[in-house]
């Protein structure tokens, strides 16, 4: 008897340019599902509100800090496709309030708005309400963002696997 294919939960992480926060969330969440043997249950991607970095690798500083924690960020930036992404993904997770506002304004079909949530909604340790953009700050900002994303990604996986 053959096994039926598992319906994957499709998750899209979104930040402004898709070079710091969302590729990090993408990589951290992928790492978690891979190490827990859950890869066949999830499809994960990341995108940016803006297309200014389209095709570029993640910010070198973010890659360096992530690498120190064992996360290898290999994604390339792409913009959100309002039609295709809202149709394809089950969850679209923004990093801050501006991302959420932009995603809501991009939603071409009102019933798709329920797919949008904020990354910090899944934090279990930190009480932040947004994942701050580390782009213009120092190394501490990148480390803090990774701390927040590790917490939120763990919380997200716990919530998804509770069912």
Structure commentary:
The chain has 163 residues and is α/β, with parallel strands linked by helices. It has one domain (9-162): Response regulator (Rossmann fold, 3-Layer(aba) Sandwich). It has five helices and four strands; from the N terminus they run E-H-E-H-H-E-H-E-H. The chain has helices at 21-35, 60-68, 82-88, 97-106, 139-162, and strands spanning 9-15, 42-48, 91-94, 116-118. It has a four-stranded parallel sheet, sandwiched between helices. Helix 2 (60-68) packs across helix 5. The two termini are 26 Å apart.
Quick structural summary:
Helices cover 40% and strands 13% of the residues. The chain is α/β, with parallel strands linked by helices and 163 residues long. Helix 1 packs across helix 5 (139-162).
Main features:
single chain, about 160 residues, alpha/beta, Rossmann fold, four-stranded parallel β-sheet, 4 strands, about 40% helix, globular
CATH architecture: 3-Layer(aba) Sandwich
Structural class designation: alpha/beta
CATH superfamily, by name, is: Response regulator
Low confidence ranges = none
Strand content: 5-15%
How many domain modules?
Answer: 1
Broad shape: globular
Q: End-to-end distance, in Å?
A: 26 Å
Write the layout of secondary structure elements.
Layout: E1 9-15, H1 21-35, E2 42-48, H2 60-68, H3 82-88, E3 91-94, H4 97-106, E4 116-118, H5 139-162
Parallel strand pairs: 1-2, 1-3, 3-4
Helix pairs in contact: 1-5, 2-5
């Amino acid at each position: 008897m053959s096994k039926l294919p598992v319906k994957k939960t499709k998750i899209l992480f979104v930040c402004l340019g898709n070079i710091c926060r969302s590729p990090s969330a993408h990589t951290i969440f992928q790492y978690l599902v891979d190490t827990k043997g859950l890869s066949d249950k999830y499809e994960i991607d990341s995108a940016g509100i803006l297309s200014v970095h389209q095709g570029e690798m993640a910010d070198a500083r973010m890659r360096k800090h992530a690498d120190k924690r064992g996360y290898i960020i290999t994604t390339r930036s792409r913009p959100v496709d309002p039609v295709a992404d809202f149709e394809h993904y089950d969850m679209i997770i923004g990093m801050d309030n501006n991302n959420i506002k932009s995603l809501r304004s991009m939603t071409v079909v009102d019933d798709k708005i329920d797919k949008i949530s904020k990354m910090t909604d899944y934090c279990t340790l930190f009480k932040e309400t947004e994942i701050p953009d580390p782009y213009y700050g120092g190394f501490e900002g990148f480390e803090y963002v990774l701390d927040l994303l590790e917490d939120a990604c763990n919380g997200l996986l716990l919530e998804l696997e509770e069912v």
